[in-house]
Amino acid sequence: MEDHLMKILIIGDGEVGKSTFVHRYVKGKFNDQYRMTLGVDFALKVLQWSEKEQVRLQLWDIAGQERFISMARVYYKGALGCVVMFDVTNKSSFHHCHNWKQDLDNKALLPNGDSIPCILLANKCDLPERAVSADSIDEFSKANGFVTWMETSVKENKNVGESMRRLVQEIMLVQ
Ligand code: GDP
């Protein structure tokens, strides 16, 4: 069995659903109780990638912040992939994705100097009150070098495992 270890960062504004996403992905449950993340949360998920390959994902979920903050370099160190998440009902959380992605690209690079694979997740797509259109997400995702973007609902378990598989697939390609 071949074993891959991947450090993956989950970044984005506070309350967009990062902690519940990690919780759902790792434990398979939706945690609907608001919990302010204190410091850096770290979760482990083992993924059977193929018959011969196993991937151990270290998921780093940052401290709950209302707004964008520049993260310490040490947090980015050794990261191989990243999830930038926003809330589709919250326009400013979408606008801040630009800052999050720039901070990432300034501080986390692959050994060859390329930026690390990063996926953009539009969370809470189960809610009716959308504030960001699919067209603007698509345009932003292409202009800012994301692998792709996907709508997710951690609440309804939509695209949680799928988005992580897509990211891991991209990481495997660039390794
Ligand atoms: P974080 O600060 O980014 O880690 O956000 P949390 O994971 O703490 O989530 C903030 C709030 O959004 C919590 O009350 C969650 O239950 C809720 N939430 C997370 N994902 C979804 C979702 O897909 N749909 C809905 N409706 N609520 C969600």
Automatic annotation (TrEMBL):
Q: Which UniProt keywords apply?
A: GTP-binding, Lipoprotein, Membrane, Nucleotide-binding, Prenylation
Q: Which domain of life is it from?
A: Eukaryota
Principal localisation:
membrane
Q: Name one GO biological process term.
A: phagosome-lysosome fusion
Provide the membrane topology annotation. Lipid-anchor
Is-annotated flag, keyword Lipoprotein? yes
Cell location: Endomembrane system; Membrane
A molecular function (GO) held by this record is: GTP binding
Q: Does the keyword Cytoplasm apply?
A: no
A cellular-component GO term for this protein: lysosome
Give a short account of what the protein does.
The small GTPases Rab are key regulators in vesicle trafficking.
Give the record's family classification: Belongs to the small GTPase superfamily. Rab family.
Q: What's the name of the protein?
A: Ras-related protein Rab
State the organism named in the record: Scomber scombrus (Atlantic mackerel)
